[in-house]
Amino acid sequence: MTGYGKASVQYQGKKITAEIKSLNSKALDLQTRMAPLYREHEMEVRAIISNALERGKVDFSLYAECESTAQAAQINHTILANYVQQLRGVCSEMSIPEPAENWLCTLLRLPDVMSKADPVTLTDEEWAVALQAIHASIDQLIDFRRQEGEALQHKFEEKIANISDLMKQVEPYEKLRVEKIRQRIIDGLQAIPEVQYDKNRLEQEMIYYIEKLDISEEKQRLTNHLRYFTETVQTGHGQGKKLGFIAQEMSREINTTGSKSNIAEMQNLVVRMKDELEQIKEQVLNVL
User: Would you say residue 210 has pLDDT above 90?
Assistant: First the structure.
């Protein structure tokens, strides 16, 4: 959901700029900052952004910069001349010499000498131009998101393939651990002096114990989740929350596999699967 867009347009000596950026968020969290001249259209802008961007913490700003002196404050010649006349009269009456320095700076600070240009009203033509900048900035952000999405898809495919490969590496240790468990139990019984045991009963207990440690179902479910995750990624946009749910299910199967792994080699592979899955879960937050 991260993205950035910025676009500027020219209109009668103005440079109108729209800037938008987004970060991860479970819903649309929109903040807007607009120049006072355009603020009457804030609800329209919010609707445009809401329709274009489904989720994300979005920060939007719209402002204008004047590229001419048309909007500069004007000197009121009449009031300035009146102030000069009054000050010279006061200096003459009180026999005070007229100041030789900073005379003009002092006069310009007097009330009403500087007057701002008449307030500008927003025209339909200017707003239409501003809308061009708004739509262009949103398009840039969407393009940015699309590029990020393509990179994420490749990342997901790589991590899913890694988990699948690690799961296959577990298989040889499943058979190996059966014999290890069997030998461990027999060694324990033989270590106890003068203990008689029924070999048939021992085999039955071994089968029961090994069945409790069997991870065939976990492997099958994890395989299904991996395939479903890949299919969902390729479906289209708007799948971010679903991918998060699938990742949770994958985590459940991997954790169960880890709890049933009673040899170091299997546990190491499970840790590596968790590491790959954790990277997926971090990046899923960036998917719409």
Answer: no
